[in-house]
Amino acid sequence: MTAYERSCILLRFADLLEKHIDDLAAIETWDNGKPYEQAAEDEVPDVIRLMRYYAGWADKIHGLTIPADGEYHVQTLHEPIGVAGQIVPWNFPLRMFAWKIGPALACGNTVVLKTAELTPLSALYAARLLHEAGLPPGVLNIISGFGRTAGSALCSHMDVNKLAFTGSTETGRIVLDLAAKSNLKPVTLELGGKSPFIVCKDAEIDKAVELAHFALFFNQGQCCNAGSRTFVHESVYDEFVEKARARAMKRVVGDPFKPGVEQGPQVDIKQFEKIHTYIKSGIESGATLECGGERYGSKGFFIQPTVFSNVQDDMLIAKDEIFGPVQTISKFKDLDEVIRRANKSPYGLAAGVFTQNIDTANTLARALRAGSVWINCYHVVDAAIPFGGYKMSGIGREKGVYSLSNYLQVKAVVNPLKNPAWL
C-alpha cells in the first residue's frame, strides 16, 4: 500500500471517531470509571487529533542521500519494521491504543495489540471503525486476555519484530526479559512514575493549588505522570496546604455519567484496596492527614480525595506509585535541595514547576531528570509533543516525530559510480 493510501485511511478513521464520540466516551466510562465529560471533551478528541497528526506523517517518511567518500551513490531507506506487538494499560484505554497504533500504521507496519483485561472494549470498538475506514484485514489485530498468558505469548513470539508496552515498571522488566529470551526484538517502554510538582516561593498560590490538584487527582489519580510528590517552598507552605485541603474537600465525587462530576470510582477492588493500604501507611508513618482517607459512600470503589502534609521522603507514600487520589505535600528551603530530592527517585517520567521567575524555570527544567517538564501547566499531551521517561520510567518516546523511529528500520544502500559528473 502506498503511503498516501495509508494517510487516507487514517484520515477516514479520524472522521469516524469524530462521528462516534458519544459511543466511545460512554464505553470508556463504563469500562474504566472515568468521568464521561473527561472522556468526551478531552480524551476522545485527543485521539482524533492524534490520528490526523500521524495521517499527515505517513507520506513524509523518507531516507537521505549521503555524500560518502569515494565514487559511490549512498542512500538510506526507511522501511517498516514488520509486525509490532503492542500492550496497552487500563487507565487510558483508548488514548494508549491511539498512541500505539498511530505511528505503527503510518510507517506501514502490521499490529497485534493486546488490551488490558480490565478495559478491553474501546479498542475493539475503534478497531471496527478502522476497518470501516478501509484498513485491510490482518493489518490490525486486537487480542483480549491476561498478561501472563496472552501478553507473555505476544512478547515471546518469534514472528513479532518489535514490542511497545505501557504499564508498570515491574511488568516492563518481564517484557524486556521475554523479548531478550526470544528473538531480541527491540522494545519501547512507558512505565511508572513518581513525578515531582515544585511550587516555588514566588508562585501565584491560588493558581498553583489548582494546578497541583489537577496534576494529582486527574483520572482518579490513576495516571503514570501524576504530580504525586508536591514540593512547596517553606515560605508559602502553610498557605498552600490549607488551600490544597480546601480544594480537595470541594472535589465532586460520584456517578461518572453525571454532569459536573470530577472523580469516578477506582478501576477495580484491587486498586481500591491498594490505595487504602498506602493511606494507612501514611498515617502510621507520621504524615498529617489533612482530609479524606476513607471510602466515599457505601458502595462502589470510590475514595475520598485525600491530602497528606508533613510528608518525609523516606515514607512509602513519598516513594511508591500509589496510583490513586492521594496528594502528598512536602516542604523545601532552596532550589539545590529540591533538585536533589526531586531527582532522588528511581522514576523520571514527568515534573511540574510553578514559578514566575524565568531563571528559576530554566534552572529546574534542565536540572530535573524527567522526560517531560511542565512549567506553569501540567498534563499537556499534544499529539506532536514526545512523551516518555528517564531511568525506570521507560525506554523510548511516544507521540510526535520521535515515535516514528520506533517503527522503522534504516537500511543503507551503496552503489558504485562510473565516471560521475560530480561527487
Automatic annotation (TrEMBL):
Query: Entry's PROSITE patterns?
Result: ALDEHYDE_DEHYDR_CYS, ALDEHYDE_DEHYDR_GLU
Name its GO BP terms in alphabetical order.
retinoic acid biosynthetic process
Asked if the record carries the keyword Protein transport, the reply is: no
Q: Which GO terms describe its molecular function?
A: aldehyde dehydrogenase (NAD+) activity; retinal dehydrogenase (NAD+) activity
Catalyzed reactions per annotation: all-trans-13,14-dihydroretinal + NAD(+) + H2O = all-trans-13,14-dihydroretinoate + NADH + 2 H(+); retinal + NAD(+) + H2O = retinoate + NADH + 2 H(+); all-trans-retinal + NAD(+) + H2O = all-trans-retinoate + NADH + 2 H(+)
Q: What InterPro entries does the database record attribute to this sequence?
A: Ald_DH/histidinol_DH, Ald_DH_C, Ald_DH_CS_CYS, Ald_DH_CS_GLU, Ald_DH_N, Aldehyde_DH_dom
GO cellular component, alphabetical, reads: mitochondrial matrix
Keywords attached to this Swiss-Prot or TrEMBL record, sorted alphabetically, are: Cytoplasm, Lipid metabolism, Oxidoreductase
User: What's the Enzyme Commission number for this chain?
Assistant: 1.2.1.36
**Catalytic site positions:** E190
Pathway the protein takes part in? Cofactor metabolism; retinol metabolism
- Purpose: Catalyzes the NAD-dependent oxidation of aldehyde substrates, such as all-trans-retinal and all-trans-13,14-dihydroretinal, to their corresponding carboxylic acids, all-trans-retinoate and all-trans-13,14-dihydroretinoate, respectively. High specificity for all-trans-retinal as substrate, can also accept acetaldehyde as substrate in vitro but with lower affinity. Required for the biosynthesis of normal levels of retinoate in the embryonic ocular and nasal regions; a critical lipid in the embryonic development of the eye and the nasal region.
Q: How does it assemble?
A: Homotetramer.
Q: What is this protein called?
A: Retinaldehyde dehydrogenase 3
